[in-house]
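User: I'm curious what two different proteins look like when written out as structure tokens. Can you demonstrate?

Assistant: Sure. I'll show them one after the other, since each token string lines up with its own sequence. Here's the first protein:
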Amino acid sequence: MNPMVEFCINRLTPDVEKIKDELEADPEVEILETPCLGNCEICAQSPYALVNGEIVTGRDGEELLQNIRREIKEQQKKWDDLLDLL
């Protein structure tokens, strides 16, 4: 299952748009833009996205991208560990 990264269209600043476009080019990642993700306090403070429903933030687009990639890896490791138990 590919990870789903969701972006609020109200927070698509040029730097966030750039990382969204970069992630869209990755066939292993699904991207979704929504009118509002319901996290307006976070949205007003910093760039953010949801990775499989988990909030990921960053000071700017570059840090957000690093944190998104880190979250994807951490979630994948959890799935791999769970599958190893089965």
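Here's a second, unrelated protein for contrast:
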Amino acid sequence: MRLDKFLKVSRIIKRRSVAKEIADQGRILVNDLPAKSSTKVKAGDTLTIKFGNKTETVKINQIVETTKKSEAEDMYEIVDETYAEDF
């Protein structure tokens, strides 16, 4: 599955266009390598996403084409969540 579609379906990022924009800016790493929105992801991959002052690392548990909101959190688990210091 494409990275931008996974982020939307899993509801980590609400809109696919926003996921594409963030990925193409180089703010997402897949297995510690810079990723574009078209990068293919699979179960077991680790994503590191930089949102403003928050950096979130998630591990993909499963890939599902469509999902309900209540089941979306089963697609991944949060490994680490850090916040940058405010200056």
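A detail about the second structure: The chain has a mean pLDDT of 93.
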